[in-house]
Amino acid sequence: MGPINKPLERPEESGKKPEKLSPAQILERMQSAQSRLESEEEKRVDSLLEREVECNKTIDNLQARLEEAKKALGIARESVAGKKNVSEEYTAGFEELEETAKQTEDSLRVLRAELDEIRKDPGVIERKK
């Protein structure tokens, strides 16, 4: 057996004559290649459209959870407003909720940016026409 990484020989280098193709064979190969490219593009666009749906669902879910968290935080803050003996644990919970809300907002920004990129894709634009 020869080496595995043996470079491919060109027909003219190996003394073999290059394969002669008829115009019909050339056309058939070109159409086959074009068909494969179109199929790959369709799969790519399908994948982007699926990701768009996933992003929208995730954004809706995160947005709803963020709104609920902000309401809960507001109610909790009102409940301790003016009180002097509020435990540090309780106020630390506020900070934790605020940090979680900030991270959720950051996640939403990232998802919205991804969604914008998907929507700008020429294949997606064409498919939605």
From TrEMBL:
The keyword Coiled coil applies. Keywords: Coiled coil. It comes from the Bacteria. Residues 1-25 are annotated as: Disordered. The keyword Coiled coil applies. Residues 45-121 form a coiled coil. Residues 7-20 have a biased composition (Basic and acidic residues). This is Uncharacterized protein. The lineage of its organism: Bacteria, Candidatus Magasanikiibacteriota.
